[in-house]
Design brief:
7 helices, mainly alpha, elongated, Methane Monooxygenase Hydroxylase, Chain G, domain 1, two-stranded antiparallel ribbon
Length: 277
């Protein structure tokens, strides 16, 4: 009788061992980040869809507003009403020039020289105004005289030069140089008379009341005359250049903006008078 080999007994199952072997086989944690990443990108698509929807709604609103906006009202053009068979003829350039000459007066332009004299007259009016302070009135009188001197040196000299060279063209005011010159003489005399009257009758007496006097030589005291004689001999006489003016000598050249004196000297012995500069 043959004996059957004995089967080794199966060890009893340990509950903790089965749990240890089953744990390494399950790896669901590695796929979880990919799913969560996909889930995170979904809100971005949703935001883009919402932005596109808003822009579409804004375009639709703008289109509706433009559709309901009233168009600007324009006045209808009115064509000239003509009877059948009539033709409207526009004037040519020659006819327009004739109409302009008829409608516009010849003296519509102001002369430049007379306009400058009018400006200087306003300076004189400031000196004549009693509301102007006293010393300011004296200054305006001096400014008026200085302006008038410059006017004659520049403007009047230019007119005389044009007359001498034969350039007798009319100005924009339609005046010849000789006509302008005559008007300057007449207007300048009137302004210079007002200038002298303002100083002699108003400004000079008012200055005298304030202690500012213009006196003659005989009105000075002996001490004042002696001081002025010393000043004349030391500072004025050395720089004087006497010039004789008589039929035997031509009139001397007088430079512009220089101080010149024209005097009449009398011989104390014979009493004969001579003009000198």
């Amino acid at each position: 009788m043959t004996a059957r080999p004995a089967t080794p007994p199966t060890p009893p199952a340990v509950p903790g061992a089965a749990a240890k072997t089953a744990a390494p086989k399950t790896t669901p944690a590695k796929t979880t980040p990919a799913k969560s990443t996909a889930a995170k990108t979904v809100p971005a698509k949703t935001t883009a869809v919402k932005t596109a929807a808003k822009s579409t709604a804004a375009k639709t609103t703008a289109a509706k507003t433009a559709a309901h906006r009233p168009e600007p009202q324009t006045e209808p053009r009115t064509e000239p009403q003509t009877e059948p068979g009539n033709v409207i003829r526009l004037p040519d350039s020659r006819e327009l020039a004739e109409l302009a000459e008829e409608e516009l007066p010849q003296n519509r332009f102001l002369d430049r020289e007379r306009s400058w004299l009018a400006f200087n007259e306003r300076v004189l009016e400031l000196a004549e105004d009693p509301e102007t302070p006293l010393l300011e009135r004296a200054k305006f009188l001096a400014i008026f005289g200085s302006n008038l001197d410059e006017f004659f040196m520049v403007r009047v000299a230019g007119l005389k030069r044009r007359i001498a060279t034969g350039v007798a063209t009319r100005s924009a005011a339609g005046l010849q140089p000789r006509e302008v010159l005559e008007q300057i003489w007449r207007r300048s005399r009137e302004l210079m008379a007002r200038h002298a009257a303002c100083f002699q009758q108003d400004v000079q007496p008012a200055l005298a009341e304030q202690g500012i006097d213009l006196v003659r030589w005989h009105e000075l005291t002996d001490q004042e005359q002696a001081r002025l004689l010393t000043l004349f001999r030391q500072q004025i006489f050395p720089v004087l250049t006497p010039l004789a003016v008589d039929p035997a000598h031509p009139f001397p050249y007088i430079s512009g903006l220089s101080l010149n004196l024209a005097v009449v000297v009398r011989n104390p012995v014979s009493g004969h008078k001579h003009f000198a500069g």
